[in-house]
Amino acid sequence: MGFRKMYHNYLKNNLFMRLLLLFSMITVVTIISFSYFMYHSMSQAAINRELEIQKKAMANVNQYLGSKYDSAQSILFGLYRDSSLSAGVSFMLQHPFQEYVQHSLEQYNLGGNSMWNDGLQYFKNQVEDDEDIRNLLLYSADQQTLYVLGHNRQLKIVPTNRARSYIPEVMALESKGVELPNVWVREAAGQWDNNLYAIRTPISDKLTLKNIGQQTVYFSTDGIWKVLGNDKDELKGTILVLSPDGGVLFDSSDQYVGKPYPYMAQINAMYDNSGTNQSDYMTKLTQSKGNFSVIGIIPKKELEASSRRIGSTILMISAICIFFAILIPFLVVMSVAKRTNQIIRFTRKVKQGDLSVRIPDVREDELGQISRSFNEMVEELNLYIDRVYKANIKQKHTELTALQARVNPHFLYNTLEVIRMRAISQGAHDVGEMIYSLSALFRSFVQQKKMYTLKDELEACRLYLELFQIRYKDKFTYSMEWDRKLGAIRVMKMSLQPVIENYIVHGLRSESTDNELHIRVKQVKDFLHVQIEDNGNGITPERLKELEIFFQAEESEGESFGLRSIHQRVKLLYGSEYGVKLQSEPGKGTIVDIWLPMDGGQEVYDV
User: Fold this and answer.
1) Which of 139, 298, 379, 458 is the most buried (most CB within 10 A)?
2) What does the angle CA 403 – CA 409 – CA 411 come to, to the nearest 5 degrees?
């Protein structure tokens, strides 16, 4: 019920509110959809970025451990390349250490190669050259003796008899990869640093190819941390290095270092390089050369936290966009609605008859053009009403004048007819003709016709001229030149006759016998041109200028019915391009040009 009331009050008859609501709905749906897809895309991109960072770090760790494996192997390769050095180390591992020392002294006294005597020095140099090496251990299988070298350049000799130690069994096990340091070996070497990994390599006699012992290198995991240094701040999750048996050689979270990894079954179940379970993203890199695996694990919760931050940012931006996407169109629509309502309000004022209103809108857009067109329309309407109103007043004035002149026209006509017959019976035929012309002229003035044409006006002029031609006999002549096809054109009553009367009163020279008046009517484009030319007294230039000014002034009530009346009535009825124009020279005559519309004008009044 409330929604229906709101619809009727605010939406049903309000186009702008409906447009605003529709635009707002489209905008909100568009922004929400775009935000959802952006969130999904950016979240996935963030996850991929974190995974790529971790993969890059894992690749660096994998490459680093591979280089350390190669470094451990290169120690023995360097040993094998020097025959005397290899022979000295082989003697040391196959004889008791005292015999090795004694034999070295004998070889030195005999001038033998000093490198043969410095086998231990070779290994000490290797330890000092690689800062990641914590210990280098040499195990003699025949003597069951462990030689331990550290950065302090001291040699520690540890007997490992089977009866007292498990080290011989440990060293007997085959191992060619990276592994955790054995606890028995640690105890014998006195090395309990937990952040170590071991690379064990068998040592063989160069001549007999018999296995004579083992080389074990303890590397510190500090080097791995250095490799991760560049990506440590951006790195998410945990990176593990696992031995084949599941021992944790390195753990970036420092949780399982030196211990068996409890989720080795899940790691072994991974067939691809990457995968997911219910709570983690896991990536696996296997190094066949060192037989170790680098595992990357990122908990989904960590990635979801990044996604939530992205989602919060997108949500805030979307809310701001929605706010401005609704606010700005709302302000624009309200402005347009206000201007539209203003136009409607002023239109209603005009409808109620107030033609003085004008819309105060000066903008150049469509509504501004409508407002200007409205103002121009009201201006034209005012001019039109003013023109028609004045024409009606003049028509009523003319009708009143005619009505006053009628004074029982039948009595006047009958009286004139009696006078005319009396004059004819007494032989005054010219008097009879004058009375007849006068009677016909009065009849044309007084008679009311629905449509008054050029033919009617010219006939009234002819009767008037006939009347005065009889009066002045041989002193006055006239002529009319006009196309009979123009006779049906509607014209204003008494548009030509006052000009004739004006000539008789002011222009006729009663002492002359060559008075002439010529009336010419023709069509000039869309105009009906009537020219009345005489050879009368003419008008002086000063008087002609006064008349031009006089034509533009308003006609006062009770003033004589003459040229100015014709000029103003024509302009009021037909427009400013029509009217009366005068040309005159003193002593030569006057030319009166009257311009009328060919179509009779849009409105014609018999005035």
Assistant:
1) 139
2) 145
